[in-house]
Amino acid sequence: MANVILNFFKEPPIKEEIQDKEKIDKMYKHWTWRIFISVYFAYIVAHFCRKNIAVALPFIGQDLGYTNTQLGILGSSLYITYGVGKFFNGILADRSNVRTFLPTAMILSAIANVCFVLSAVFITPGHVSFFGLPSAAILLWIMAFFWGANGWFQSMIFPPIAKALSYWLCKSERATKWSIWSTSHQLGVFTTVMLSGILICKLGWRLAFGIEALLVTLMGLFLFWALRDKPQSLGLPDVDVYKNEPVEEKKEAAIQKMSYFELFRKYIVCNKILWLLSIAYAFVYVIRFGTEDWFVKYLMEYKGDTLAIATAKLSSLAVVGSVGAIAAGWFSDRSKSGSRIPINIVFFVGLGISLFLFHINRIDAFDYILAALIGAFTAGPQLLLGGVCALEATSKQVASAALGFAGMFGYVGAVLSSSGTGFMVDKFGWRGAVCFWIASAIIGIIMCIIIMAYSSHHKPDIIEIEEKNEEKETAQL
Fold it and tell me: Which domains does the chain have, with CATH numbers?
């Protein structure tokens, strides 16, 4: 049984390379777009089984009689498992078949959603006790368990997508197309909120979860038909070779000789650039979750906005964020220096200035523009630092693990944002919270400068290491 499972997820073998140039062109054009579109819509649909709880929480609380603290336990259970799972599932995805790993993750997430709902069907909060505990408490922890499991399965979805994009997109187009793909997040959140709202109002939250789980399952089955692993599994050459990108042949040859453990140790554990990028990425998430989670409360309490106006300003922040991601990708792909870090510095500077101006601004209409700028300037580093830069600081063979590693740091930043913002508000008021966010942007700038300085003086060269090892072997002979 174990062998059957391993073979199901195992990477397909590399086929003999096709020699017909016309056939290669035709296949690359077909499969690149097919896979890109498939993973784009896959990530949109995946949100149906993750962000649906944001709309359902008020109804779950009312239906089951839970307090806000108890509802918070449900929500946090996903973020904990999701943050840790992104790293560990990244390691698994690097050695797995995209065609089977991603659809399985989607279907398991759907099953976890169904189990989450069924637990509330079979256990009704009341005065009944189980093992000395009230049924409400038992139900809460069972639901938290299934929602935490859902977080783990959801964390399996991005790593194979990252692997697919890294193998099918060449370096010169990677940031631009990756930024276009990243808009699937904003579209996924928007679509889920709209769909969940309609379904819950019409059918209730239990049936809404079931229908959304069905849609995610159908997408998983579709992906099994639509996806393929890396180009070499179809007999195609490496994408950088096909697109005539600069390739360090000796370096690639040396990488091919290394085991996955050696690659993981060198490009993840001992990769100082990746560590620096991940730390900078954590502070991007401090600002991202600080603004997304606290903006409505900030606007209502500090600026006196109504709930409707506050949410409208927040929506401009979220919607325009995708524009910032595309702009960051486009400009970084066309950077003459070949480095994407200066683009991040520009965005961090713009972010800090926008936050400051937003805080001191008293013209209501101008708030919408500044909120949009905050969203755009946040989305740029979010795309580059934890995505494209992290990928290019490593090797494609460990791409999923590298992005999962950076993503784990991002969710450390999310936790820091939640606790840190609340602490600053309690101690220093909303001015303290804004200073906390601006300080995070400044730290991001400092980290980028450190990365640039380190990169210019410590360019890792795997070939030198290999040559030294060969010299030692020769000397021993």
Answer: 27-240 (1.20.1250.20), 266-460 (1.20.1250.20)
